[in-house]
Known about the structure:
Keywords: Membrane, Transmembrane, Transmembrane helix
Subcellular location: Membrane
GO molecular function: carbohydrate:proton symporter activity
Largest sheet: 4 strands, mixed
Number of strands: 12
Distance between the termini: 51 Å
Number of helices: 19
Region (Disordered): 473-500
Membrane topology: Multi-pass membrane protein
Amino acid sequence: MAPVLDPPETVDWMGKQVPVWSMQTINYGLLLSQDPGEIDKVVNACLEEGYFYLDLQGIDGRRMLSDQQETLKLMKRFFDAPIEAKNEFGLISSHLGYEPVGSRTGVAAGTKDGYEMLKVSRDEIQHDNPRIPAPVKNSADMRILENAIGSCNTVTKVILSALSTGLALTGAGRFENMHRNDRLSTTTLSMMHYLPSALAGQNRIGHQKHTDISTLTLLFSEQWGLQVRPPGTCGAREMGFVRPKAGCAFVHVGDSLRFASGMKFQSCIHRVYFLASLVALPLIERVGRRKLMLFGAFGMMGSMAILAGTTSTGTTNEDGAPQLSTAYGVTAVVFLFAFNSFFAVGWLGMTWLYPAEVTGLNIRIQANALSTCSNWISNFLIVMITPPAFANLQWKTYVMFAVFNAALIPCVYLYFPETSKRSLEEIDLYFARAWSEGVSPVKMAKTMPRYTATELDNELAKYFSAADIEQRRGSMLQSRRPSAMTQAPDEPSVNKNTTQ
């Protein structure tokens, strides 16, 4: 599905216009028949957006729609029960991002914000021992829940099979092997109930922004309320609504499927990565370049080491597919996110900023070109070597990356001088004086005092020719930082209160 380029339709919600994002509609009947065109459509939807409508109105999908209607009737009957009976079951709890904002403020008498969720495990239903309230634990209601979970399970396998075919996966590597009925599963049917927002006044009910850790999420709703932020939408700055579509389910790609696809499919990891990179902006000057780079290197090394340790416990099943315990699997997912965050805080911006600061004016353009070229060549190498590395080294690939990150630590500590709150002329003076006195630029950066503008010119004259100094003065407006440009002639070149 191509990104939405035209201005989207909007709806009035809480006094403002909110966009309604469009999406691809996939025909379930054609998908079940392995139609090549429909397979291409669902693969593209997962590659570019990460969600789509699934049209179930054909003969193959009507049974699922019927099961969902029966489940909806059961939900209404249960959620209309007295609050005392429902609270005994403990319906108010954390539910992986679906708990609404303000759900614990008690805005309606006798309730906890009116938010309720009933969750039923596929494995528990399959073994006839589900943990569900007594009012619905009877043979008729159990059959309804079993049918709903069974139909969702079937649809999920059809989608995964189509995605596997579209990506030319074979054998144990096909996605549907992750949903074998004879293996433990976290597949869950979740039924959610919200009070009308008018009852909450200013504490209106809404979902927390989140991503699902599952393989696929199938959502059924007859009312407006679901909002998304399309990752592939050009210029999107806010959450937008998904239009309820009769006879269709809303299908969302979860993080597990994203990882299984080799990061080809879309997910919300980009939101975490971007937010982590914002953290570095106020810290670059306040904390300093060296500390951020060391922090990032330590964090990335530790994340890779933990990933190596957790994934080394993995085994293979009888089909040759890898499997990992739940505890180790969750830990691995957490530290995969953590690695991206450590990189964003410590190194994402530094690869562009630091080379421009530490190179002299006469070679700055060439040095920036070289550093940029090196950056992208390194990215290319990582992309190319990682798949064969995992195929041959398996979990030891993480050990290799941990060693690479560990090697950054002594390099930064021994050879990277601090440039925070120093003018470009002072940084040039670091290296000139360090070369002249035979000491490390790192040590010189720590010991060199702050100079006034006049003192700095005198110091530069000791190490640079008159032509070099004139060249620096001619480019001062382009190369100096604002703090250095606006200072008085005899004031220090940086704030005196700043410490290293």
